[in-house]
Amino acid sequence: MSDDVLGGTWRRLPVVQQPDWPDPEAAHQVVRDLASREPLVTVDDTDRLRRELAAVAHGQAFLVQGGDCAELFAEAGSEAVDRTVGVLSGMAGVLTTALGIPVVTVGRFAGQYAKPRSNSHEERGGVVLPVYRGDAVNGARFTREDRTPDPRRLARAYDASAATLARVRTLRASCYTSHEGLLLDYEAALLRRSPDGRVHAGSTHLLWIGDRTRQAGGAHVEFARRIANPVAVKLGPTATPGDVRTLLELLDPDGEPGRLTFVTRLGADRVRDLLPPLAEAADRPVGWVCDPMHGNGRITADGRKTRAVDDVLAEIDGFFAVHRESGTHPGGLHLELTGDDVTECVGGGVVEANLGRRYTTACDPRLNATQALGLANAVAARFGAVPA
Ligand code: PEP
Ligand code: CO
């Protein structure tokens, strides 16, 4: 691969969850092409988000981050984007009134095209194919053609992200973008050095490191360490207080609020036990955000992935309670949601027997607009605000 403006330090470290391109030379070519493109976001906007996330770390603002688990190229720049932004804005309106502080909205979009997976392959009816890793890598349909990784998809991911960003700009909703910084060749190709010498990821405003790629000696953390964007790290049930301290030292060595946000996804039944030692391990102000989705997945009797809105709300309740007791700030919510009328999560009018009606996610089940706004109202009600 061509080197990057960071000098490629991360390339010398162990890296997980990268695609196995059948034609590595074709991948090199795409990466070289991406390196010549315009960054997708501006340094000014990225720096402004970092300042707003500093307010989140200090308890003076609240983050609402959400969007698809896996975005689809087919929906890039479409009305689906308007609907997602609409849900985020609606939630922000409810929560800013209830909490009495500004709400910062960040989409899980314009780049959320790569997924970490637990298994490399999937079997259906005796046929074994590579697992779907997001539209930036392969296609979701269960055919050999779709599932074979194709590096030209990296360029399509850039184009799709640009289309969605253009659409968001027309909405004038002041919504930032974010995605999981998983595919390091893609992210490295979009690094740009600004005149003041800092290096920014040009792919998005906020980049996060997933629970599967947050190893202290690994390439993803090293990559995040070297960029000036605000970064987030997901913390699942295996995260330890030592991990929190190490990640703070690596990613926020100067103790600059807004630089690092921890997104905990511990599960409704474990958050009250697992979160206190993590929150108390932080020796400097850092953002604490609740992802109440990824610790609450379950499989229905007919084999569908779902989540119950009640479990989502229970994890949020635990998150607020723990931070209140720990003297830390509950800084926001990170949700998988869509403005489309899907039936993927149970609750808010969707029963398990009806999940098949409009189950369209390419990866994890999302809240629909009714469920997401219902959740915001339920959280608001906890603060004594009467739901609209
Ligand atoms: C995700 O956000 O879709 C995801 C894979 O999350 P995590 O890294 O927390 O498992
Ligand atoms: Co997901």
Write up this protein.
The chain has 388 residues and is an alpha/beta fold. It has helices spanning 24-35, 43-57, 79-99, 144-147, 152-171, 184-189, 219-225, 241-251, 271-281, 309-326, 369-382, and strands at 62-67, 103-107, 121-124, 127-130, 176-180, 191-193, 199-201, 206-209, 231-235, 260-264, 287-290, 298-299, 305-306, 332-336. Strands 1-2-5-8-9-10-11-14 form an eight-stranded parallel barrel, surrounded by five helices. Strands 3-4 form a two-stranded antiparallel ribbon. α7 (219-225) links the parallel β8 and β9. α3 packs parallel to α11 (369-382). The radius of gyration is 20 Å and the shape is globular. The termini are far apart. The site of cobalt (II) ion has 5 residues, from loops.
